[in-house]
Amino acid sequence: MPPVPKLSVTIITRDEAANLAAALDSVAWADEIVVVDSESTDATVAIARRYTSKVLVRPWPGYVAQKNRAAEAATHDWILSLDADERVSPELAAEIQSLMRDEPPAPGYRVPRVTFHLGRWIRSTDWYPDYQLRLYDRRRARWTGRLVHESVKADGPVADLSGELQHYAYRDLSHHLQTMDRYTTLAARQMRDDGRTAGWLDLAVHPPAAFLRNYVLRGGFRDGLPGLVISTLNATYVALKFAKLWELCSHSTSTPPAPGAAGSSKSF
């Protein structure tokens, strides 16, 4: 009989003291937990060490490099990658444990992710089912990507699981807006690096289309006022992304005038 495969859970962290314990509690059944921390200034490392002896602290190299480093540090080849603001639901835990009774046939498995925001689980808009490839064989898959939207790329067809990965992405609307600002900046930079540009048509067409897709086609209206708010913010994300891309492309070669030079608005 072939040996039963074992599972390593990997989590990368930075200043996640408020979230980490709940995330680790949800995977306490795993064979191993590996935490790679990016020099947190809060109690993240101390909390991690209550759950596992395998805690690495290293400088931040970017999402892809850090997640691949966590997989390399694991003892076992099968990896479940988890973010600190995520929880493995009991249903997903049972499904993974059942799958791991034998060597899983696919190189990777996607899981549906559901986000809790504005007082409810959001199962509409672009946010759901938000499939994420998080369970994978590191011999046949690894993290890829650049500035934003890193993902696991597998050598071969992947399969889907049905148990949900629970996501607590935002504390409130202010946190949501702060996150949007950070990620739209990264998205704009990546689009610029890919040779994309933006003009009035992008700003006039894409945000309204995103709102209609979220609120009407993907059922945001079913979630009441939270669905309307999220659909609006998802459209705002698109608008900010293209506006920042336009700004980068339009002003990247311009140099501000020196103090006192012609055209400077500063007076002395």
Provide structural commentary.
- With 268 residues, the chain is of the alpha/beta class.
- The protein has 2 domains: 7-167, Spore Coat Polysaccharide Biosynthesis Protein SpsA, Chain A, CATH 3.90.550.10; 173-251, no CATH class.
- The protein has 7 helices and 13 strands.
- It has helices at 20-25, 44-51, 63-73, 90-99, 173-193, 200-217, 224-251; strands at 7-13, 32-37, 55-57, 78-81, 86-88, 108-111, 113-117, 120-122, 132-137, 141-144, 151-154, 159-160, 165-167.
- The strands form 3 sheets. Strands 3-2-1-4-9-6-12 form a 7-stranded mixed beta sheet, with helices on both faces. Strands 5-13-7-8 form a 4-stranded mixed beta sheet.
- Helix 1 links the parallel strand 1 and strand 2 (32-37).
- Helix 5 runs parallel beside helix 7 (224-251) and helix 6 runs antiparallel to helix 7 (224-251).
- It is globular and about 60 Å long.
- The chain starts with 6 loop residues before the first strand and ends in a 17-residue tail after the last helix.
- The relative contact order is 0.12.
Topology at a glance:
Layout: E1 7-13, H1 20-25, E2 32-37, H2 44-51, E3 55-57, H3 63-73, E4 78-81, E5 86-88, H4 90-99, E6 108-111, E7 113-117, E8 120-122, E9 132-137, E10 141-144, E11 151-154, E12 159-160, E13 165-167, H5 173-193, H6 200-217, H7 224-251
Helix pairs in contact: 5-7, 6-7
